[in-house]
Amino acid sequence: MIALSSIYLFENILQGFYSASMRVCVNWLSPTKKLLVKLLAIPLKIWSKTLRIEIDEKSLQLLKTYCHTPKVCALWHNRLFIASYLFQKYFQGTKMYGLISPSRDGAWLSEIYRNIGIHAIRGSTQRGGRNALLEMADVIRGGHTVTITPDGPRGPRYLVKPGIAMLAMETHVPILLAGIHMHHAWRFSSWDRFYLPKPFSRISITFRVILPEQYATRNVEQLQKSIQNVLCKINAKSLPKYISTAPIPTAVC
């Protein structure tokens, strides 16, 4: 078990970490922009309803088993568009929190999630990370779920950072990992090559879980590698071959 006091070691573990004395500037939207988000939510909901979602039986069973259990959920950053659908379809009735960057981009995402019932924890492994980890641990101990994009907020793409492993080892909860394959999608030119599924397109979803008893004897680095490998395996159809076939990816272009 990692004592919460040892979280101060994050400054030496996570690149770009701010010291405890630094104040993190969290960006929020103005009332006008919040109204714009509400207006945009209408066509986005219609868009989501046109998507044809496929999910295998094993994944459905995992969702039934762990839906109302405190846990850490994870998906790659460039699959975030589908996160709202997953929450509304499979996690209704649960209180879910998402780790969202304190940046201006994060302010938009935070407001979008607020409109569908997902609570925001503002921080990242680069800015406000230690405080965000403490808050996420408290949320999980309160019986709720936290969702993380382990390669966010700025990459490298498809490379898991140690924060998710440290959080899981501190709270001893299941880690629910999502594999999402969008058969037809537009790609943005952002660092993560964000996926925007085309209307009426097909999306295949797979869930796998890493249980506390499976990682109880592992250290942070070992669990981090396990999460990396499972995420790569269940997202293999959408990943470059050099990523999905490498047992432990160390760099991403």
Provide a short characterization of the protein structure.
The protein is 40% helix and 17% strand. It is of the alpha/beta class.
Explain this structure.
By secondary structure, the protein is an alpha/beta fold. The chain has a single domain (24-244), classed as Glycerol-3-phosphate (1)-acyltransferase. 40% of the residues lie in helices and 17% in strands. The protein has ten helices and nine strands. It has helices at 10-13, 31-50, 57-66, 83-90, 104-116, 129-141, 163-171, 212-215, 220-234, 241-244; strands at 52-55, 71-74, 96-100, 119-122, 145-148, 175-182, 185-187, 195-197, 202-210. The protein has a seven-stranded mixed beta sheet, sandwiched between helices. Strand 3, helix 5 and strand 4 form a beta-alpha-beta unit. The longest helix is centred in the first third of the chain and has 20 residues, at 31-50. Mean pLDDT is 83; it is low at 1-23 and 245-253.
